[in-house]
């Protein structure tokens, strides 16, 4: 329930930030709205990863098998975090520059974005290790 509450709260906060605050006057320019949408892209990957955590915890609480649930959750969390980090490092920089007509580099080398990308890739790799361990355990159980 706590993870679901955080997920819903973050969606509401992101929605408020995207739609603008109701007490602010004026209509946003199309470029400003498009720039806000572009900056929202990594959050979608991170929210997907948080949703995967929530589903895994709910599945474990409901009594689902541990190994398949954890492997699937790690795969989905890794993909979401990796996607969000890649979008943060490459897409935001280039799309924002294209929208506002500015100049600059092709990648924003933010340490947190790069670390999140590595963690996402590691989660994807660890999910395959958990799958292989489950298969090996099943094979050993057949032998015994």
How would you summarize what this structure contains?
The chain is mainly α and 144 residues long. It has helices at residues 2-19, 30-61, 66-100, 111-143.
Which characteristics define this entry?
144 residues, mainly alpha, 4 helices, elongated
Description:
It is a single chain. The chain is 82% helix and 0% strand. It has 144 residues and is mainly α. The termini are far apart.
Low-confidence stretches: none
For the biggest sheet, the summary is: none
Helix content: over 70%
- SSE run: HHHH
Percentage of residues in strands: under 5%
* Multimerization status: single chain
Overall spatial form: elongated
Question: What Rg do the Cα atoms give?
Answer: 20 Å
Q: Number of helical runs?
A: 4
Q: First CA to last CA: what distance?
A: 40 Å
Which structural class best describes the helix and strand composition?
mainly alpha
Average pLDDT, rounded to a whole number, is 83
The tally of strands reads 0
């Amino acid at each position: 329930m706590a993870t679901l509450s955080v997920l819903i709260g973050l969606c509401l906060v992101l929605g408020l930030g995207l739609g603008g605050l109701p007490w602010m006057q004026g209509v946003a320019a199309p470029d400003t709205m498009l720039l806000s949408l572009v900056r929202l892209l990594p959050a979608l990957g991170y929210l997907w990863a948080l949703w995967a955590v929530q589903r895994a915890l709910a599945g474990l609480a409901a009594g689902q098998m541990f190994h398949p649930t954890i492997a699937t959750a790690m795969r989905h969390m890794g993909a979401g975090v990796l996607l969000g980090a890649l979008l943060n490092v490459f897409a935001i920089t280039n799309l924002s520059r294209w929208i506002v007509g500015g100049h600059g580099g092709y990648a924003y080398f933010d340490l947190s974005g790069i670390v999140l990308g590595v963690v996402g890739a590691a989660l994807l790799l660890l999910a395959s290790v958990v799958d292989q361990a489950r298969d090996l355990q099943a094979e050993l159980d057949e032998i015994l």
